[in-house]
Amino acid sequence: MTMEALIFDCDGVLVDTERDGHRVAFNAAFADAGLDLSWSVERYGELLTTGGGKERMVRHFNETGWPKGVDDKDALIALLHKKKTELFTRLIEAGALPLRPGVERLVDEALGAGLTIAVCSTSNEKSVRAIVEQLLGAKRAPKITIFAGDIVAAKKPDPAIYNLAAETLGLKPAQCVVIEDSHIGLSAAKAARMNCIVTMSPYTAEEDFASADRVVSDLDQGITLDVCQSLVALRAGR
């Protein structure tokens, strides 16, 4: 059994975006809307256990109270998320956040081997596309299929987005290797019956990765295409 596809999560995997990217953009969006709200590094870490930016805002307001005078909660969340996405995209376009170690190399190895490459993320599609196009470049981006945002109704740890990628791209789950950085992402990949390597990020280093096929601090710590292929082959031999 040979490897068919390499599938990346985005935030925390392609780029360490959470603390100094998404959190900063959320806080700027709150300020732009006149809200007396600023998520600390610690608070945002707590909220990351919920998949999806809109869902994190809903959780926060449900836990702490909604702003006074808000009649349409859905409209507020949509407005804030739209502004946050705009601000985050500007950060990416300005080159404020670099690719994590090993990402570009592993993508090039996979492209050279003719493998399918995809990105599956709970983040807004515009944000994910900005990262792929700006940081991986014009030659690589058209060869990478993006599944992101509200393309599925259930966000990670539900496997829906990985199932959709497999169905859309005609992939066998057991022949896919996913790169994730969080427990909820790992849970989604495993529920989709895919192999999963975890590359830990600052927010997720203490999470439970017992079910991962490999855990590293970054992809330059021994993760090559041959290693990915070995995981697929090992599974076939079980």
Summarize the structure in words.
This protein starts with a strand and ends with a helix. The protein is α/β, with parallel strands linked by helices. It is globular and about 60 Å long. α8 links the parallel β4 and β5. A six-stranded parallel beta sheet has the order 3-2-1-4-5-6, with helices on both faces. The model has no long low-confidence stretch (mean pLDDT 95). Helices cover 45% and strands 12% of the residues. The chain has nine helices and six strands; from the N terminus they run βαααααβαβαβαββα. The protein has two domains: 150 residues, Rossmann fold, CATH 3.40.50; 76 residues, DNA polymerase, domain 1.
Rounded Rg: 18 Å
**CATH topology of the largest domain, which one?**
Rossmann fold
CATH class of the largest domain: Alpha Beta
**Proportion of strand residues:** 5-15%
Which range best describes the helical content: under 10%, 10-25%, 25-40%, 40-55%, 55-70% or over 70%?
Answer: 40-55%
User: Any low-confidence stretches, pLDDT <50, length ≥5?
Assistant: none
